[in-house]
Amino acid sequence: MRKCLLPFVFVGTSFAAGAALALTLDFPVEILREETRSEALASYALPIAAFDGVIVPSRTVEGALEQRAFQLDAPGMTTLEILAPLREQIVAAGFTVVFECEARACGGFDFRFGTEVVPEPDMHVDLSDYLFLSAEKEGEAVSLLVSRTTFAGFVQVTKVTEAPLLPAKPPKAIVDLDANPAPQDVVADAGTGSGIKDTLDSDGRAPLDDLVFDTGSSALTEGDYASLAEVAAWLEANPEGTVALVGHTDAAGSLAANIALSERRAEAAAQALIEGFGADQSRVVAKGVGFLAPRATNATEEGRQKNRRVEVVVTSTR
187-236: per-residue pLDDT in tens? Predict the structure, then answer.
């Protein structure tokens, strides 16, 4: 089998100098297929410990994110035979391994669905046979997830590097309140939570569109979450009211796994509502329905992102 050299370019910590340090991962077998996604500025929950019974402990790292999933021509190879040379190269590049585990020790199902994973078929994870590793050095983080089938190996590489500064936003326009301008239509930002109180009164349900989940992830990053603030305000204005937070997923994976994942997403949102906004725990429940109630097609990434959501549903009657 021929070797395949896979270059990952990590941007150095000194942007003024324009330095770049290249980490080249040398795969000992042929790459059959590859899927890549990248974001110029994003956050990633880097796992730092095994599933603890509630969550996968993680440290949020921010910067330029690149995630690649590879299918390898590796019949008969074990997951350790695939991972070991990659680990050596990462350590040789100056990274310090902060956590590694194998399937059962990681937490099995709960770890797999508690961290970000590229959907099938691009990244296959055998819940009884996978290895995970995360490593860091100053300004950079990388994680490896390795699994296999009888005839192929699968490797997911996620890296986050320091991102260059974004261009400054243009100054906001100054509005003369005495000029009596002609009224204009105002379009509410779907991510602000604006209008949720009114929607709950009129429709009895509303999506919480500022709660965004990546595939396989149930963790909420820190944020103001205007939608949860509005749900808390609705509960305060309706002392007898009760709500359910209902989690939804995209269609990647089995129904049972997605129902479990969607319920954990709903529980994360409920915890934020209770702890962050003072909602009464006895008036909030969390449920998950997996991919059974999509609001967009699962055939595109845009549609799948819309389907990964939490909705609030009024459960009290008058």
Answer: 233 344 458 988 898 889 999 988 865 555 677 776 778 999 999 999 99
CATH 3.40.1000 fits 4-161, yes or no: yes
Can you say how many angstroms the Cα of residue 306 is from the centroid of all Cα atoms in its chain? 13
156 phi/psi in degrees, rounded to 5:
-110, 125
Nearest to 245 by CA among 225, 224, 270: 270
Q: Where are the alpha helices (DSSP H) in the chain?
A: 79-92, 103-106, 109-112, 196-203, 226-237, 255-277, 301-307
Say what the pTM is: 0.51
Tokens encoding 222: 């820190």
Q: For the chain, what are the domain ranges?
A: 4-161, 189-314
Q: Which residue has the higher pLDDT, 49 or 302?
A: 49
Q: How far lies 46's CA from each of 20, 159, 215, 232, 245, in Å?
A: 23, 10, 14, 30, 26
Count the neighbouring beta carbons within 10 Å of the beta carbon of residue 127.
16
- As a CATH number, domain 189-314 is 3.30.1330.60
How many angstroms separate the Cα of 275 from the Cα of each of 101, 129, 193, 232?
Answer: 31, 37, 18, 11
Q: Which residues pair with 158 in a beta bridge?
A: 67, 143
Reading the block at residue 229, the tokens are 């603030």
